[in-house]
Amino acid sequence: MRRLGRINELLEIPREVVSKVPKITVTAFDEILIENFKGILEYEEFFVRISTHIGNVNINGFNLKLSQMTEDDILVSGKIEGLDFESKRGEE
């Protein structure tokens, strides 16, 4: 396992590509792209809770929409006012 990690490092393969670690990209206060998500736990126009393999991502705002979604990625758009994380590390 350690050797595979070294090979990925040498090839400069991003960590989120070879693992289930989420990558979160925030664009201004308008969009949040979450790569490697597991599911949608809660969805309201003012609050979205997304499950990832390492915890939950909570998004607060107004007029929030699930703009695009694939099997692994989800794009939340709207007026984003807050973002916080709930780690699962203590549960493992």
Please give a structural write-up:
The chain has 92 residues and is mainly β. The chain has one domain: Immunoglobulin-like, CATH 2.60.40. Helix content is 14%, strand content 58%. The chain has a six-stranded antiparallel beta sheet with strand order 1-2-6-5-4-3, with no helix packed on it. It is globular. The mean pLDDT is 85.
Short summary:
This protein is mostly beta strands. It is 14% helix and 58% strand.
Set down the secondary structure blueprint.
Elements: H1 2-10, H2 15-18, E1 23-27, E2 31-35, E3 37-43, E4 47-52, E5 55-69, E6 73-87
Antiparallel strand pairs: 1-2, 2-6, 3-4, 4-5, 5-6
Proper CATH architecture: Sandwich
User: Radius of gyration over alpha carbons?
Assistant: 15 Å
The number of helices is 2
Distance between the termini: 20 Å
The strand line-up of the biggest sheet is 1-2-6-5-4-3
The main pleated sheet reads as: 6 strands, antiparallel
- Highest-level CATH class: Mainly Beta
Number of separate domains: 1
**Beta-strand share of residues:** over 45%
Elements, N to C (H/E): HHEEEEEE
Structural class: mainly beta
Mean pLDDT: 85
Shape: globular
Number of strands: 6
Could you estimate the helical fraction of the residues in percent?
A: 10-25%
* Low confidence ranges: none
At the fold tier of CATH, the topology name is Immunoglobulin-like
